[in-house]
């Protein structure tokens, strides 16, 4: 195992600051936390006249726990209730909802359909009711729905069987995920149809009362794959303009058919080479010689470095399309999770961290700050803060206070300690026993056919029948 220091052992601000310096990353934080409605994290944000009540955002977190026909289960409802109770005033999409069956990441992913619209509306209502009960008013709560097609990582019918819908043959990912060289790519006319499905799903989201939809462009799924489809021919590949046609056409359709809906985009703002497990279990980059044009926001000459030239172009496009809501993420949980969700403990199929996870956090924060500085008019949500654990509020407060990000997004932390935002804003002591310690069981579970949840820390999942299965499974995998 790595000798990276555990965050829980960094008990003082000096201890944390010294360790950050030892790791050699640029990560700043406020030593004193402020609280109350005028504090940096408690203060509202104005989005085109709508007041979003504070600076915490719940990131989309799926649970692999919907019904086979794409509707929420009791577990899904419980998670959304927790999102509402968190006290965060921006709900970025709830979780990934496939726009059609072949785009589901697993057979239990939620799916948009005429038959499921009332159920999605109910999820939203449960969230709002829980929020009102815990926090009073929901007048300043903004709730969106994330729409997706899982593309290369679709497993619509069997949790264990990939049924990839790809845009181009990728020199590394095809091999890594067993995609045969002759297998078909989505045709331009199939993409035209899919755009129609996104627009229909958005119209259903509007009917279900969501304020915005997130047109997901991150984590290696289809929207993200468009951005790296440099080697694809035809209307949806090659030059930047073609690679963003998918987004532009969906936006035009949504504006036409669901005009009251706002639009957001969650973006992997940078990407690197895929990684694999090295001899000592640590992640190492997959071998690749020469030019690598498949990491959007990465440096094609040196694909372990960030190069935001095209990301800036993408943000220019968002601005042109009058899309104000953007959530910054990175990479993919399938091929370089350490840049996307920094963790000390990998999931069962993962590699040990190749860098101190703080470096992964700092990289996302730095890129987000750079984007916010260049596009102050956009509402920018950051991701990847969970690994900061005890220091999350202090780091978050610094970056929001300094105007380097508008919202602190919470992913894994909301599974472990869902009402952390309320505690921070009211100035209560952090409940350190509930802090996510990045054990990755919420990923190990679903990677092995179980529902996701915080098995180690959430009392509900500790007692869940699948907790025992997870324990046995982890023993077997040791
Ligand atoms: C169990 C689990 C489910 C997730 N589900 C989604 C999802 O549905 N959509 C999405 O865009 N990201 C999803 N993510 C990524 C998170 O939103 C977030 O980007 C990531 O966990 C890093 O943030 P954190 O450090 O706060 O956890 C998921 C992550 C985990 C661990
Ligand atoms: S299982 Fe719980 S502690 Fe582990 S990473 Fe997920 S949320 Fe964090």
Describe the structure.
There is one protein chain. The chain is an alpha/beta fold. It contains 17 helices and 16 strands. Strands 3-4-7-8-9-14-15-16 form an eight-stranded parallel beta barrel. Strand 15 (379-382), helix 12 and strand 16 form a beta-alpha-beta unit. Helix 2 runs parallel beside helix 3 and helix 5 (188-207) packs parallel to helix 8. The two termini are 13 Å apart. The model has no long low-confidence stretch (mean pLDDT 97).
Helices and strands in order:
Blueprint: H1 13-23, E1 45-47, E2 50-52, E3 56-58, H2 74-85, E4 90-91, E5 96-98, E6 110-111, H3 117-135, E7 142-148, H4 173-176, H5 188-207, E8 212-215, H6 222-227, H7 240-243, H8 245-257, E9 262-268, E10 275-277, E11 283-285, E12 298-299, E13 302-306, H9 309-320, E14 325-329, H10 337-340, H11 357-374, E15 379-382, H12 392-401, E16 407-410, H13 412-416, H14 420-426, H15 441-447, H16 459-462, H17 465-477
Parallel strand pairs: 3-4, 3-16, 4-7, 5-6, 5-7, 7-8, 8-9, 9-14, 14-15, 15-16
Antiparallel strand pairs: 1-2, 10-11, 12-13
The chain binds flavin mononucleotide and iron/sulfur cluster.
Keywords:
binds iron/sulfur cluster; 478 residues; 13% strand; two-stranded antiparallel sheet; binds flavin mononucleotide; alpha/beta; single chain
In summary, what is this structure?
This protein has 478 residues and is an alpha/beta fold.
Strand content: 5-15%
Number of strands: 16
Global shape = globular
What would you report as the Rg, rounded to the nearest angstrom? 21 Å
User: Helical region count?
Assistant: 17
Q: Estimate percent helicity.
A: 25-40%
Question: Low-confidence parts, pLDDT < 50 over ≥5 residues?
Answer: none
């Amino acid at each position: 195992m790595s000798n990276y220091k555990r965050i829980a052992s960094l008990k003082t601000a000096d201890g944390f600051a010294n360790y950050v310096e030892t790791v050699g990353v640029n990560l700043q934080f406020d030593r004193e936390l402020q609280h109350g409605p005028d504090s940096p994290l408690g203060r509202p944000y104005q989005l085109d006249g709508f007041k979003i009540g504070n600076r915490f955002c719940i990131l989309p977190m799926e649970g692999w726990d919907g019904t086979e026909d794409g509707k929420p289960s009791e577990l899904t409802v419980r998670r959304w209730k927790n999102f509402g109770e968190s006290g965060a005033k921006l709900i970025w999409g709830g979780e990934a909802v496939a726009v059609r069956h072949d785009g589901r990441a697993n057979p239990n992913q939620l799916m948009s359909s005429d038959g499921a619209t009332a159920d999605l509306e109910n999820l939203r209502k449960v969230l709002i009711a829980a929020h009102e009960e815990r926090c009073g008013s929901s007048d300043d709560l903004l709730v969106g729905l994330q729409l997706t097609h899982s593309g290369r990582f679709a497993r619509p019918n069997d949790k264990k069987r990939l049924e990839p819908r790809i845009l181009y043959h990728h020199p590394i990912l095809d091999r890594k995920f067993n995609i045969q060289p002759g297998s078909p790519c989505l045709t331009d006319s199939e993409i035209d149809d899919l755009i129609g499905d996104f627009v229909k799903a958005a119209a259903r989201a509007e009917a279900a009362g969501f304020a915005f939809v997130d047109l997901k462009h991150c984590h290696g799924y289809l929207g993200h794959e468009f951005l790296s489809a440099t080697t694809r021919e035809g209307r949806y590949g090659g030059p930047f303009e073609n690679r963003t046609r998918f987004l532009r056409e969906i936006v035009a359709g949504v504006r036409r058919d669901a005009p009251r809906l706002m639009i957001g985009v969650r973006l992997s703002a940078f990407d690197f080479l895929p990684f694999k497990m090295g001899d000592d279990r640590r992640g190492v980059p997959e071998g690749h010689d020469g030019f690598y044009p498949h990491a959007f926001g990465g440096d094609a000459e040196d694909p372990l470095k960030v190069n935001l030239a095209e990301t800036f172009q993408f943000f220019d496009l968002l601005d042109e399309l009058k899309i104000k809501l953007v959530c910054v993420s990175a990479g993919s949980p399938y091929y370089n999770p350490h840049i996307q969700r920094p963790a000390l403990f990998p999931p069962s199929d993962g590699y040990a961290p190749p860098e101190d996870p703080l470096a992964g956090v700092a990289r996302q924060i730095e890129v987000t700050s750079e984007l916010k500085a260049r596009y102050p008019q956009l509402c920018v949500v950051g991701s990847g803060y969970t690994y900061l654990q005890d220091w999350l509020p202090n780091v978050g407060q610094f970056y929001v206070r300094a105007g380097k990000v508008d919202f602190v997004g919470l992913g894994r932390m909301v599974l472990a300690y869902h009402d952390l935002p309320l505690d921070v804003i009211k100035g209560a002591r952090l409940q350190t026993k509930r802090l996510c310690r990045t054990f990755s069981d919420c990923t190990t579970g679903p990677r092995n056919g179980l529902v996701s949840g915080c098995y180690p820390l959430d009392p509900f999942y500790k007692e869940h029948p699948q907790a025992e299965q997870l324990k046995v499974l982890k023993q077997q995998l040791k």
